[in-house]
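Note to self: user wants both folds in one dump. Writing first protein now.
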Amino acid sequence: MTDRDEESETRGLREIPRENPMIERKSMSPPSETQTGGCLCGQVRYEFERGSVLAAHHCHCTDCQKSTGCGRATILLVPSSGVHSSGELKTFTVRGSGGSHVTRGFCPECGSPILSFVEEMADLKFIKAGSLDDPSWVEVVSSFWEDSALPWSPVDADVPALPGNPEA
């Protein structure tokens, strides 16, 4: 069970160690290719360089299931400094299972989930892959929270999976 706190302030993320094989940097294209995305109504937009993506993962935790309305969230780990956005996000913060403060940002008008960040990981943003204008290039390298994956949305057998969060 998580303690839920509604907050509207922006929080940061700490860098995940590079030696963690589940989060090993995987260049998904030339660094100069700009990727764009946003919400359904167009009020929130963002961009980042595709080459800055550290990795892409599926998260099957129950909070991601509830916040997406799906069996998992597909997320891109991108350095915070490289994400540029326009439009205001509404945010909601929960205390994650490991005690961290997880904030999810979504469009206040249409409700589209856009990104997440963790206070204790100030240098990262977790972009929701489905919010990209063209997500066809995304290559998922692992799954988190295999233990809470639902039978109708199982863990992808072709990528490594962890029972919970990766160790920091």
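First done. Writing the second protein, which came from a different request thread.
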Amino acid sequence: MTRSELLARVYVLLGGRVAEEMVFDDVSTGAQNDLQRATEIARTMVTQFGMSDRLGLVSLEGPRTPLFLPVPMQSAKEYSEDTARVIDAEVKQILTDAHEKVRETLAAHRSALEELAQLLLKKEVVERPELQAILKVVSIDRAKEKKKSLAAAEANEGRDKSDSKMLSDA
């Protein structure tokens, strides 16, 4: 998984918490599990995947889940207290940056957030087509198709320009 994909998961996990902050100007315990999972992803990025600018390309911990038990466990620490402080700071920075990005994104789409909140008050589950309508997005397949056709058009335009240049040079 790429750094971008892991961060996207963190953004999604923080979305509910940030929405609560924005709408209610308060937070509840409802997002506790999401916050725990986002923190675990950020910690894994830093300690296992070498995705920390300050610590560099180093894997400081092994997987935190035992082989046969679905319960996270603490692994033996194989680094100094100074490194532990850097790890904590890096994890906090990832979460702080993600929190800010999610806040900016939700603020930019506040009307969609409000519309979705109203729909969720009426019904417990929102299906993909309803969400896409609120967000005014097309299906992923249609978006990919459109992106491909735009890229092809740009490539053709580039060829047309180079053909024209070659004709004018001749």
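Dump finished. Worth passing along: The longest helix spans residues 140-169.
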